[in-house]
Request: fold
Amino acid sequence: NAGVTQTPKFQVLKTGQSMTLQCAQDMNHEYMSWYRQDPGMGLRLIHYSVGAGITDQGEVPNGYNVSRSTTEDFPLRLLSAAPSQTSVYFCASSPDARGGETQYFGPGTRLLVL
Amino acid sequence: GQNIDQPTEMTATEGAIVQINCTYQTSGFNGLFWYQQHAGEAPTFLSYNVLDGLEEKGRFSSFLSRSKGYSYLLLKELQMKDSASYLCAADNYGQNFVFGPGTRLSVLP
Reply:
């Protein structure tokens, strides 16, 4: 099993550009989520999904879109990049959408918006 | 609202014992996770407490008091490789986690 994979590992964008961060898992997990991590602020939930076709907003959803067309994939789209979106982005998955199980994290994508 | 608090930084000596505290106020609380995160890497799972009390796992133990909204992670026989950030996270009904800001632990020789 590859676990949770994320691409790209690093990305530099200009203000106003759009892009998609890719996330995939091969563990048949129901629950998938996107976090951003900024210094001193821990992990903040952007969007999450409890199964294919179902997504919901987390704590900081503005400026981001997600979709979950398959169990395996959960891409995160930045609609119009802003310097405030400079961060490290982690995708995670968990076997049970009801909770009570750990999340498994991907290696992260480091994004710089100029 | 939801709030989780941890000390920002801690320092300890190799071979010593350190306790990292976490206090939380969340709605729909199910349990509490602890994760370890080395610099530049992803968080990895350490422990999960649902019931009150102490759970021991080798050099690491975790404690939970649901009535007090309090947890701690205890690290014994500290090693240099334990230098990392430690994140507590509340597992809430409704399928989302709320993370604390993380505690950066430095282990000195």
Q: What stands out?
A: The interface with chain A takes residues 4, 8, 30-31, 33, 41-45, 48, 50, 87, 89, 91-102 of chain B (CB under 8 Å).
